[in-house]
Design brief:
By secondary structure, the chain is of the alpha/beta class. It is built from 21 helices and 13 strands. Strands 3-2-1-4-5-11-10 form a seven-stranded mixed sheet, sandwiched between helices. Strands 6, 7, 8 and 9 form a four-stranded antiparallel sheet that branches. Strands 12-13 form a two-stranded antiparallel ribbon.
Length: about 550
């Protein structure tokens, strides 16, 4: 039987594609990935695939025509909804919503036999929702997708001022008062570190010239409205600080009203820019936009299972460790198949119980005696690997090249090295003596448990992220985890080479789907397709 033709959207470095290819049941025809470094990595490891850039400009009808149909759509669109991550970045609406809709567009236009979409497990969460756009209304109602009223707080009561409600309703007024992004960023960089006097002092010193130029600009604004007046108060406070008339701890309260007003204006503009349907604006403990929202999962299921598309859909959270990866990575998977092909579809069961989980040692123990390099130039030829006896099952699977590439790390600062030496296996930043954590993070007590984590050889690790930024430490060596070691933890074989700067390589590894889990999903899907299609052919003579 011919291999199933696949298109991979938001392909990244190609972990999902690799898992599908490893089954030898699929042929990846087209991959979309916007990042140049990830494109480079994908092309190197998936020769022959047509790698394209922005999925928003994809002509799926042309792709369908060129390849005489596409059987499977796979991919992992970024999807933030309006989760907590958004609020931390001061955005009311995330553009990644559009990318989920692009994935949906691909399915609707290609009408494949089946699809697989992967994302973080929070996608199934009730709080992970999209705001309703004006052009969503007809589809939401037709597909009976449940929507509920959501209140978007634009401004807290503490910062209310006369006329604020009128401004958020009027895009022209919003654009009149909204600062350029670079102006807001300059003031916000001071506000963000205001809980840490040492960091705030450093930021005020570093940004002094830019802030003084910005102050001059705002003092030249002769408008008498309250927004302009508050802005001048903010910059007066900075000038007073620089001339030693006030202390550093007085600055936050003086710049906060302006920061909050600019955030209000930015959120209000996002509502207009994203064509969000607003049922009303209320003065309720400040200013609130009353809008409607729907769960991302309900949205996808509602549209794809509608009669005109008629997909049978299954979804669930899979733990990578249950499929042979040495990490407890949780991914949310949605898969669907045309009802005309099969009345049911299932995700694969994992074959590893908790007491059988593969460990960090299984993945990287055989590299302990291989010294990593520090510079990209030293990684061009790679490191010659000597043959090793008595490798475990996972190491045997992953050690498929006698040339080790990407075994590269960053140089360790004196401060970081002191921490490395003090942290035991399985421990992290919070296990450090107080003398080793000062002047590090704005609030050390809130630092995540994945920061400065020394991996435990005899356990699976947690979710592999950008381990360079998280400062993950080798179980027994006082050094960072290398790109290759992180890739091993993700179950990329040594023959799979990552391109770009060190940070880009670490990022690609952290963003990837573990190929070993992707392979299990692909194998299960192939079994369902082959079984049902062969039965159909048999029934038809």
């Amino acid at each position: 039987m011919d291999k199933y033709k696949v298109i991979d959207l938001f392909a990244g470095a190609g972990g999902l594609s690799l898992g599908f290819m490893q089954t030898q049941k699929y042929n990846i025809k087209v991959a979309f990935e916007n990042s140049p470094c990830m494109q480079q990595t994908y092309r190197l490891n998936h020769p022959g695939v047509d790698v394209q850039g922005d999925v928003c400009s994809a002509d799926f009808f042309e792709i369908k025509k060129k390849y005489n149909g596409i059987d499977i759509v796979i991919g992992g669109p970024p999807c933030q909804g309006f989760s907590n991550a958004n609020r931390q970045k001061n955005h009311a609406i995330n553009q990644n919503n559009m990318l989920v809709k692009q994935y949906l567009r691909a399915i609707l236009e290609l009408q494949p036999k089946a699809f697989v979409m992967e994302n973080v497990s929070m996608l199934r969460s009730e709080v992970h929702r999209f705001y309703m756009e004006k052009n969503d209304v007809e589809q939401i109602e037709r597909c009976h997708i449940p929507a509920k009223t959501t209140y978007l707080q634009l401004l807290d009561e503490k910062y209310m001022f006369e006329g604020a409600l009128d401004i958020v309703k009027d895009i022209n007024m919003i654009e009149t008062y909204l600062w350029p992004k670079e102006d807001y960023s300059e003031l916000n960089v001071i506000y963000k570190v205001s809980r840490n006097p040492a960091k705030m002092e450093a930021a005020l010193k570093k940004h002094k010239q830019k802030l003084l130029r910005l102050a001059k600009k705002h003092f030249a604004d002769n408008r008498a409205n309250i927004i302009s007046i508050e802005a001048k108060k903010s910059f007066s406070a900075l000038l007073d600080y620089y001339s030693e008339k006030i202390t550093i701890d007085e600055i936050k309260d003086k710049i906060e009203p302006t920061i909050m007003t600019q955030r209000m204006l930015s959120s209000a503009k996002e509502i207009f820019d994203n064509n969000i349907l607003v049922d009303s604006y209320l003065e309720q403990d400040g200013i609130v936009a009353v809008i409607r929202s729907f769960a991302v999962l309900d949205y996808l299921k509602g549209i794809l299972s509608a009669p005109e598309n008629d997909y049978v859909i299954e979804s669930g959270v899979l733990c990578a460790a249950e499929y042979g990866a040495p990490q407890k990575r949780m991914r949310f998977i949605i898969t669907g198949i045309k009802r005309s092909i099969s009345e049911k579809i299932a995700l694969p069961n994992g074959r590893f119980d908790k007491d059988e989980y593969r460990t960090v040692r299984d993945a990287i123990g055989d590299l302990e005696d291989v010294d990593p390099v520090y510079d990209l130039a030293d990684d061009v030829q790679g490191i010659k690997l000597q043959k090793k006896e008595k490798l475990g099952e996972l190491a045997t699977l992953l050690r498929d090249s006698d040339c080790l590439r990407n075994h590269i790390i960053t140089r360790t600062t004196e401060t970081a090295m002191a921490r490395f030496k003090a942290i035991q296996q399985g421990k992290n930043f919070h296990s450090l003596d107080e003398s080793l954590i000062t002047n590090t993070y704005t609030d050390p007590a809130r630092t995540q448990n994945t920061i400065y984590l020394r991996l435990n050889y005899d356990e699976p690790c947690g979710t592999v992220v950008n381990v360079r930024k998280s400062m993950w430490i080798h179980p027994t060596k006082d050094r960072a985890i290398s790109v290759r070691e992180a890739a091993r933890l993700q179950t990329f074989p040594d023959s799979f080479v990552f391109c770009g700067t060190k940070d880009k390589q670490y990022q690609q590894v952290g963003n990837a789907v573990p190929p070993i889990m992707a392979k299990a999903i692909a194998k299960k899907l192939a079994q369902t397709l082959t079984r049902t299609l062969q039965k159909s052919e048999s029934d038809n003579g």
